Amino acid sequence: MDVHAPKVEAFNLVDRTNTDPKGFVRPVDHFRVEPWGLYMARPADHPHFHYLESWLLPSLGLRASIFHYHPFHARDQDRYVDIGDFTAGEHVWRSEDHYLDLVVRTGRDTQLLDVDELIAAHSAGHLAAAAAERAVLVATAAVDGIAAHGHDLDAWLAERGMPISWR
């Protein structure tokens, strides 16, 4: 397993860019700021997907995404959720991924991924115990909330006063 420091990204509202964890600066088609989050939509030059939409939800410690996959790389998922710290700024928002992820298959199930990665990162000193514990608590609360809404992330967020929409 590749043990690495948390992945950090920046979302520059003024320059309309997204700086990914490897430092690549990508143009953003659309940002939308709401009192409870930031929406981003941008093209992707990834071999498996061509477009990415994300909602950063700081108060929940979540980043919800839709990956628009190329036909031969499609995955059985509707939403992908990263757990971490998401910080709003006047001009730049920041994210720090805390390893745990959720795969939501709307109406069917929600799967928690990468627990082993979180434990390895904590053991290697990349993530403090308090942050690792928070990641577990955030992830399990999200799984519980999403499941209670028929495995529908959007419905759960709407019920929490965070109605999201996608492109």
TrEMBL record:
Matches recorded under InterPro entries: DUF402 (IPR007295), FomD-like_sf (IPR035930), UCP012622 (IPR014465)
Residue intervals of the DUF402 domain: 25-151
SUPFAM superfamilies recorded: FomD-like
Gene3D superfamilies per record: FomD-like
Pfam families assigned: DUF402 (PF04167)
Protein name according to UniProt: DUF402 domain-containing protein
Native source organism of the sequence: Rhodococcus spelaei
Lineage, opening ranks: Bacteria, Bacillati, Actinomycetota, Actinomycetes, Mycobacteriales
